Amino acid sequence: MNEKLPRKELFSLPESVIYLDGNSLGVLPKGVSQRLKDTVENEWGRSLITGWNEHSWIDMPECVGDKIGRLVGAPSGTVIASDSTSINVFKVLSAALNLRPERKVILSDTGNFPTDLYVAQGLVRLREAGYELRLVKPEDLLHSIDESIAVVLVTEVDYRTGRRHNMKDLTAAAHNAGALTLWDLAHSAGAFPVYLEECQADFAVGCGYKYLNGGPGAPAFLYVSQRHQSRIDTPLSGWMGHEAPFAFQLDYAPAAGVNQMRVGTPPVLALSALDAALDVFDGVCLEGLWQKSVVLSELFIEEVEARCPELELVSPRDSKCRGSQVSFKVAEGYAVMQALIAGGVIGDFRAPDIIRFGFTPLYLDEEDILKAAKVLQRVMGERLWDNEAFYKKAKVT
Question: Would you state the torsion angle of the CA atoms of residues 300, 303, 307, 312, taken in this order, to the nearest 10 degrees?
């Protein structure tokens, strides 16, 4: 198995740019451009509607899902690529609540990604009185699981700080209390090994455009453990989740297995891009990928703390408790990040004062990290961030 990292030759990287934002939007894999060209010109252009059968478009959610499943420790037939992360949270959380009808509490933490919390809040409003979303601090989550909890909704890696929850321990605690788990893997899948089946996770969701490099707004994915597939009930009973969608029956009958979580027509172009993007993981050992990520992130922490003592590390120092990202706190974080981007190093900002850096060993190496730290040192030391243009916030921050 080829474990050589990085694989820069597989990506379209702009010259003179060090990209440390793959945890927000992955880099374009070179194979995606040709795949999209072929899908548009040859499959759609020549086959037209017969492409659904000729090119197996109809099966893409399962085929791409199985590819993702291999990256998150899920067996074939448990993952589909579909919809957005938010829609998948709604579908899966509702199905999980239906499996625990005697309980009405969704437990989550204040470090969870806001969209997950918003969806949970909306779902609570839709259900009968008595349901609630209970929030605790991330460090209190494990000890807050009791017999009142129906579902523990948790993002494995905190999007701001990079703090990483222990999937095995949290899932075991939930099961011991009779609760279910729903894991958001948006900052996990493709960044380090995930062991959904081994950890006995019940459900999971994740997005395709961060470490999976599927492109802006790429399809998301969802996972349903095999032990729950015969008992789930999705709230969005769309025609593609029907057992016989082209029979056009008036009443809904769910498809077998995870396919009942499908809703509408698969977005073929977007799924083709994601499918091609996943090829960059062929032959990659995820444990080796993670080890390289630790090397890069440790080097970055060491260099930044030596060069920029005014920055405060907010990510866990222990790599076992951290995802593939490092975050620092600085009062003028937005302006600092804009100055850094102007200097050729792209990270991102998270309100109110976090500058965040993602580490993707598929296309980053030690030289990139050292250069990035030097640019950050110059931005801070020369106060390059103190420029009126860098304070003006864009619509997307």
Answer: 50
